[in-house]
Structure formats: C-alpha cells, structure tokens
Amino acid sequence: GQQLNQSPQSMFIQEGEDVSMNCTSSSIFNTWLWYKQDPGEGPVLLIALYKAGELTSNGRLTAQFGITRKDSFLNISASIPSDVGIYFCAGKDNTNAGKSTFGDGTTLTVKP
Amino acid sequence: DAGVIQSPRHEVTEMGQEVTLRCKPISGHDYLFWYRQTMMRGLELLIYFNNNVPIDDSGMPEDRFSAKMPNASFSTLKIQPSEPRDSAVYFCASSLRRQSYEQYFGPGTRLTVT
Questions:
Q1: Phi, psi values for residue B60, rounded to 5°
Q2: CB half-sphere exposure, B67, CA atoms < 13 A
Q3: A42 with B91: Cβ contact below 8 A
Q4: Contact at 8 Å (CB) between A55 and A62?
C-alpha cells in the first residue's frame, strides 16, 4: 500500500526560528494536504495543494507540491509559541476516491 | 457554520462494556471518515463512507468494531465488547468531493477502557 514518510519526527526550536518539514511518498499523489493538530483537538487543514510544482502560502506558512508528485514540504517562518502542535501531511491519488494517506506527523515544540 | 460534531468528548468504561461513539458531519459533505489516534500507531483510518455507503473498512481492527451511517447527518462507531487496548482518541472527519476531499475533523472522543 501507499506509504508516507514524514520528517523530522519532532523538532525543538526557539521562538523566531524558521521551520521546515517534509513528506515523501512511495507513489504519486494528485493532492497534498497539510494539517495541524493542537493538543486535545482534531487536525485542522492548513494548506491544500493540487498541482505539481504549486507553491502556496497561508500567512507564515508556505507549502509546495513537489515536481515529481512524490513529495511536499511545509515551511513556517518566524515561529511563535502557538505554532506548537503536530503537523500532518496527507496525500491523495486517483484510486480509493475520497481517502487520503496520512503521514505519522511532526511534533513541533517552540521555546519562548 | 457548525463543524463536525462528535459525542461524547470523553468516555470511560470498563472492559467488556459496549461503547458507542457518535458523529454528525458537516451538512452537505458526502464523505465521512472514522480515525483512531494513539501514541504508538499514530492516526489510523478505520472506515470511510461515501453517500452513507461504507467504501473501505479494511482498517477496522476486528469484528468487535462496527460502524453505521443510517443517514447523511449521522454515523456511529460501536465497540462491543470493549478492551483496554481500544483506549485511544477517535476522530470523525467529513469532506466534500467538489473540494478535492479536504477533510474536516471533529474534536474527537477520548476513550478510556479500564
């Protein structure tokens, strides 16, 4: 089956630093999605990417859909304490309509 | 607009008891997903529905788990009998095909089986 490798597994950074995380897949995806999960809550969609090479920003967040369609990255600039949480990537291909494959998540800790 | 609604938010039960988790998807969404999240296994897809019909239940751990969607606005996940290893946070999510399947998650139900 499809597998997503998300890295790093965890990050400990200082407030104000930039953050970068990525996902790689063993197969091609047509859609990449990035979610954030705050402690005690469900994941919330941050950014959706639909075309290879697409670069999309949402405030301090920037995500890109890799040209090979097998990878995606998420950058966070000038991190703040409320960026703490678990970030998940998810990918979707043309099969299994509706179903996305989720990565294992990157846990981000921001030290004030 | 109301998001995905799950109930209860917390459930504590004894081993062997039946547990029913409930979900109301976002109105108009035609896909509904049930996930389980644990520290060890991360976020696992258990089952998903399209237009109230189960499409893929390959993630359901065993026969003790069952899910139904009697109509477009309600779904249940039932565990009978429950076991301590079922302790986890269970999420329901819904999506709309026209929005390329972007999923909207509920707040989750934290289940503890003692």
A1: -65, 125
A2: 30
A3: yes
A4: yes
Neighboring chain A residues of B42 at a CB cutoff of 8 Å: 102, 104-105
* Distance of alpha carbon A88 from alpha carbon B23, whole angstroms: 22
Asked if B91 lies within 8 A of A43 by C-beta distance, the reply is yes
Question: Number of residue pairs across A and B with CB atoms under 8 Å?
Answer: 58
* Cα(B16)–Cα(A9) distance, integer angstroms: 35
Mutate to test the interface with A, among B96, B104, B105 (most CBs of A within 10 A): B105
What does the block give as tokens for A68? 């090979």
Cβ pair B35, B15 in contact under 8 A: no
**Which of 50-69 (A) contact B at CB < 8 A?**
50
Q: Determine contact, residues B78/B102, Cβ cutoff 8 Å.
A: no
Candidates A45, A49, A56, A89, partner chain B, best to mutate (most B CBs within 10 A): A45
* CB neighbours of residue B76 within 10 Å: 15
Give residue B112's pLDDT: 98
Quick: pLDDT tens for A10-45. Answer: 999 999 999 999 999 988 999 999 999 998 899 999
Residue that the structure tokens 């846990």 belong to: A107
Note the pLDDT tens digit of each residue in B20-78. 999 999 999 999 999 999 988 889 999 999 999 999 999 998 899 999 999 999 999 99
CB A67 within 8 A of CB A52: yes
Helix, strand or coil, per DSSP, at residue B75: strand
Residue whose token pair is 């999506």 = B95
